Amino acid sequence: MKYFKTIPNMITLGNLYCGFLSIGFAANGQFNNAAILIIIGMMLDSVDGRLARMLGVEGNFGKELDSLADIVTFGVAPSFLVYYTHFYQFGVLGFVVAGLFPLFGAYRLARFNISPTKSSLNYFVGVPITAAGGILALLTLFGGRIPSIVTTVIFTAMCFLMVSKIRIPSLKEFPLPKYGIIVSLFLGAVFFVTLKGYYGQFPYLIYIAIPIYIAYLAYRFVKVKGKKNS
């Protein structure tokens, strides 16, 4: 049983590492790769918690580790990505503004961690940092067709929506639709990058992430179908 505890944590650490790699790719000017790694992080983030519940190894350690990973992958990495693609033209001011995103995200995560578990299963208070960071990553992928002012407005909106009191329905009890959304976004991003001719620079991590994620989806689908039939 003690070995099972490490499996969800390793997936969470994989999420964190995706955030680190994303920052490195952004710093080297490979913005599409940086955005794809954030989306891969979304895939891993949607798996670790459910896997911990499946294995019966949920705990405070995993919850805190997940928050630390999220602030890097969906807070720090997207802010660097937006800075290098849009805000760099404003110099120091742009760097300061980009740094606000992880601050709002950290506040959002801290509030989520102390919220009642029952309410967090039914709805989120404020936009989750995972969704906010994923939106910024997608904006970067299609940044050539989106004016900078639109990105700036969405960036600002995401900051305030994360700490808002708006209730957003949670999809934790309906895993397959949520996975469908994430997979659709991911495959769309892959198609876009391939179409644009960046296939040669594509992160090799994707060849590991996709088979594992599809296998997990298949397992969840069979399990849900089995419960309904029984």
UniProtKB/TrEMBL annotation:
InterPro entries: CDP-alcohol_PTase-I, CDP-diaglyc--ser_O-PTrfase, CDP-OH_P_trans, CDP-OH_PTrfase_TM_dom, CDP_ALCOHOL_P_TRANSF_CS. It is a multi-pass membrane protein. One of its GO terms (molecular function) is CDP-diacylglycerol-serine O-phosphatidyltransferase activity. It holds the Pfam family CDP-OH_P_transf. Gene3D superfamilies: 1.20.120.1760. It catalyses: a CDP-1,2-diacyl-sn-glycerol + L-serine = a 1,2-diacyl-sn-glycero-3-phospho-L-serine + CMP + H(+). Its EC number is 2.7.8.8. It is an enzyme of class 2 (transferase). Keywords: Lipid biosynthesis, Lipid metabolism, Membrane, Phospholipid biosynthesis, Phospholipid metabolism, Transferase, Transmembrane, Transmembrane helix. The chain crosses the membrane at residues 20-44, 90-109, 121-142, 148-167, 179-198, 204-222. It is found in: Endomembrane system. It comes from the Bacteria. Belongs to the CDP-alcohol phosphatidyltransferase class-I family. This is CDP-diacylglycerol--serine O-phosphatidyltransferase. It comes from Halalkalibacter kiskunsagensis. The gene is pssA.
